[in-house]
Amino acid sequence: MRKIRIGLLGLGVVGAELANIINSNIENISEKYGVQMEIGKVFVRDLQKKRNTDIPSSKLTTNADEVLNESDIICECMGGAGTEITKEYIMRCIKSKKPVIMSSKKVIALYGKDILDLCMSQKSQIRFDATVGGGIPIAKVIKECFKGEKITKAVGILNATSNYIYSSMDKKGYSFEQALKKAQDLGYAENDPTEDIDGLDALYKVVVLTLFAMKSWVNIKELSTKSFSSIDILDMKYANELGYRIKPLAIFEKKNNKFIYRVGPCLIDEKHIAANVINNFNIIVFEGSNSGKLGFYGQGAGSMPTATAMFDDLVSVLKTNFEYETDLYEGCEIVTDYRDFRNNLYWRISVENTIGKLAHICNVFAQNSINIEKVIQKDAINGKMDVVLLTNSVDATVIDLITKEFETNQIEINTIIPFFND
Ligand SMILES: NC(=O)c1ccc[n+]([C@@H]2O[C@H](COP(=O)([O-])OP(=O)(O)OC[C@H]3O[C@@H](n4cnc5c(N)ncnc54)[C@H](OP(=O)(O)O)[C@@H]3O)[C@@H](O)[C@H]2O)c1
How far is the CA of 54 from the centre of ligand 1 (A)? Predict the structure, then answer.
């Protein structure tokens, strides 16, 4: 029987789970596919560290070359912190035509074009279905289905940490900081949560999903995010009063040969399926040219779902007998930013409770041809009151003009949040 040595780069939370899944499936795989899997060398930084797997210490090495040279298939479970070194190892595996299975969405999002171009020129196999979706097998669904149609648009809650924080603010009345602390205590947020909170984690997933859903490469350097931390508990409260929820959304669309996207807080109709996805759950709703909307819901992260998805990738390599794909992506996208979504806007404005202030606000909007669709004036506290307005879409340059005009009149814009117009 053919022997397949599987090398691992990293044996942390995900790597250890993957090693356990591989070891418990050796017989099953040999019966089904006629190959004898075996874990070969495993690259780690610290040989003495206690690990969540019984891989013998003789297999561990701090020399990545041993893994690259002595394996038939390489599983990358290190990503994250050392993205450049991970990229270097991956490129070396591809050059030696060894199939690679990846866990790191960040490495794909940052260096995916170089990696995929090399795979296509070397005719080498790469799989990275596990990098996005976690327990939602979204990449496999896209690859197996949607053969006769195009995915044109997607909206998702792709980051579990920010969704947990928003749910806690909304349901329990926590401040953003209190909710973040709770998420960290429960293990839903990293000690350094910057990438989750600033929307970078969701942005990496948008890049990877665009590869899967639209076969297009988007240069992440052209994308930006609006931090999820820009939301106050008052915004949650007012949005709810108006029949909306504020959610940490990632939206992307291909329109007139351009890639339009937004990653940041958005108001969404309370009846929309994504408005009701709470805590650490994720959702991705695709719009297919023939099927219309299709939603996929589940736990989007976690070491066990990721390791399980990596094992599925490993089985796919065995099933396809190491065959490579020639069309990992079909083209690069020209990016235009979220303002092109032309979304309606929510404004929370603080103003002194004096005669004529509200009229002044309405006048400024009218002078800039902005239609106010709804307005709520809240009770004044210590002489100041919140005014909440829902308007039609407004160009960024006009927002800048209005902000300046208001500043000279001691009117403060606290928050502007776009709507997700389905
Ligand atoms: N954890 C999750 O829930 C999750 C979910 C989805 C995707 N992922 C992805 O899975 C990958 C692994 O995540 P993890 O949570 O398993 O991480 P982890 O626990 O920190 O493990 C990282 C492993 O890589 C090894 N390593 C070697 N060189 C490294 C370097 N320069 N920088 C960082 N690590 C190095 C570490 O060695 P030592 O053990 O000796 O330190 C460790 O074994 C990442 O790409 C991550 O984005 C993780």
Answer: 18
- Looking at the chain, the domain(s) classified CATH 3.30.360.10 span 138-301+333-339
Beta carbon of 211 within 6 Å of any ligand 1 atom: no
Q: How far is Cα 48 from Cα 331, in angstroms, rounded to an integer?
A: 45
Higher per-residue pLDDT: 189 or 59: 59
Residue 54 CB coordination number (10 Å): 9
Q: Does domain 138-301+333-339 have CATH number 3.40.50.2300?
A: no
For ligand 1, atom 25, name the residue with the nearest CA: 10
Ligand 1 pocket, residue 308 CB under 6 Å: no
Residue type, 35: V
Lowest mean pLDDT among 17-21, 206-210, 306-310, 394-398: 394-398
Active site residues: 205
Neighbours of 294 (CB within 10 A): 15
Longest dimension (CA), the chain: 87
Ligand 1 centroid to 33 CA: how many Å? 29
Q: How distant, in Å, are the alpha carbons of 110, 198, 219, 386 from that of 225? A: 15, 7, 14, 26
The architecture in CATH of the region 2-131+306-323 reads 3-Layer(aba) Sandwich (3.40)
Q: How far is the CA of 49 from the centre of ligand 1 (A)?
A: 13
pTM of model > 0.85: yes
Secondary structure E strands in 107-210? 126-127, 151-157
What is the Cα–Cα distance from 174 to 239, expressed in whole angstroms? 16
User: Which of 9, 11, 43, 45 for a ligand 1 pocket mutation test, highest count of atoms within 8 Å of Cβ?
Assistant: 45
* pLDDT beyond 90 at 327: no
